[in-house]
Amino acid sequence: MRQAPEFEVRIVVTGQHREMLDQVLRVFELVPDADLDLMRPGQSLSHITCGALSGLDGLLQRDRPDVVLVQGDTTTTFAAALAAFYHRIPVGHVEAGLRTDDPYRPFPEEINRRLTSVLARWHFAPTARAARRLLHEGIEPQRVWLTGNTVIDALRHVAARAGPVRHWQVRRHLERGRRLLLVTTHRRESWGEPHRAVYRALKELIGAFDDVVGVVSVHPNPAVRQVATEELEGIDRVVLLEPPDYLGFVPLLQAATLVLTDSGGLQEEAPALGKPVLVLREVTERPEAVEAGCARLVGTDPTRIVEEASRLLSDPEAYRAMALAVNPFGDGRAAERIVQALRWAMGLSTTPPEPFRPTPSGGDGEKRC
Fold this sequence. Notes:
Blueprint: E1 12-13, H1 18-27, E2 34-35, H2 45-63, E3 68-71, H3 75-86, E4 91-94, H4 109-119, E5 122-125, H5 128-136, E6 144-146, H6 150-159, H7 168-175, E7 179-185, H8 193-208, E8 212-218, H9 222-232, E9 238-241, H10 246-255, E10 258-261, H11 266-272, E11 277-279, H12 287-292, E12 295-297, H13 302-314, H14 316-323, E13 326-327, H15 334-345, E14 367-368
Parallel strand pairs: 1-2, 3-4, 4-5, 5-6, 7-8, 7-10, 8-9, 10-11, 11-12
Antiparallel strand pairs: 13-14
Helix pairs in contact: 2-3, 3-4, 8-9, 8-13, 13-14
């Protein structure tokens, strides 16, 4: 919006994930106009929902914006959309149309994004599949825009200035020629034994490949942190990291040989840098990555994880096939298209945006893995 002077932008954050939020704000040099500061130890989904709804209600009553933009599938996203609806303020949903068709996978994100779709007036879909899904659910075509995903915009912006890997232990392993397995886990439905199984699979891989180092970004939630520490602390060639800021995380992603994750965003970011992804979930709202060959669903069964990771670490052709697949998620211009769509939808322009069109040719319309 900095290059769209007809819009006056105000940034509101809820503080649902305080540490991660503050890191992102610093990296992108953003200063919120309002911070609800909701995060509390052991907070429940009900607490987050009620706090966000109440806090946003007062802000919307005071400022009366012309449109509220929400992104993704967090509880904050749904609460903000509901608060805007109560004030009859149109909602634009960025990253709209993702679905798994299982209300408990991921939990509560699948329901959050479905409810947000019901409340939103404008839907900015990252892929053609997501756009088709919105149409199938009865949303009028003129309210759905195919834009690509802003996560790729952010990745390109940061990758251009990220620099080398910061963490000294990881650098030491890389200097010794070791291959980096980057691991992130946080999904609520996998807390406990499923996460424990993932970490045991990582230990088995470390034992099988003496040129591999496992780098685990440990989510701050105590339910995740306790299991990761119990299973991995003190294991040779396993590095446990506090979640780095995005400027610190992108170099790790660039240096990785393979990514094991249950994150939604990483299913898009890793392929954009040519990194094969093993998705630690049974279902994904981003099946395009699996269909394109960038990612593979392995769940949390350690046997499946070890089998698939071992194949990629041992078979150069299998690895190359995943690393060179086409990434269907964006070309770095999603935010530009969203601004253009808002201009058109709000009567500020007579020219609708050109939609994002991934192509197998490797041209400007898509980004190779």
